[in-house]
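Quick illustration, no need to memorize.
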Amino acid sequence: MNRIAIVGSSGSGKSVLARRLGEMLQVEVWHLDALLWKPDWVLTPREEQKQIQQELVSRDSWIIDGDYNSTLDIRLEAADTIIFLDMPRMICLYRVLKRRLMYHNRSRPDMQKGCKEKLDLALFRRVWQYRTSKRPVVLEKLELLAKDKRVILLNNSKEVKKYVDEMKSQV
């Protein structure tokens, strides 16, 4: 497990899991939100997003969390381990709301400075529609990649905790 891609809906717990695994495995963690958003919520152009991720995945070891579909294949192809946090939508919505309250009027740790936490209709809609719009595409990709890579599907908080506990015992 030298190259780990963590994917899932907003609010699924990608960044938290990435930080935990990074500490345990002593592997550098890259949060795509922090890399691809510039201050005041200006998104990096797609070509630059690809370039940034190509550079990251060329390294010997990394943990990258994020769910940017247009560049998902870059991370999935380069990863030796893919963790899909396939959380229920209500959990994701709850966490997005909780995150908004926790980081009111400031940026969260896994986000670029100058991107104050917000909750808008677009984010709410993206989380709500993830299971029907993005999830099937991700699952299809993972099914194809499972022959050559370690693919881990975690469906709830209990499974994430169990996985983290198992990793602790192996390290």
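DSSP finds eight helices and seven strands in the chain.
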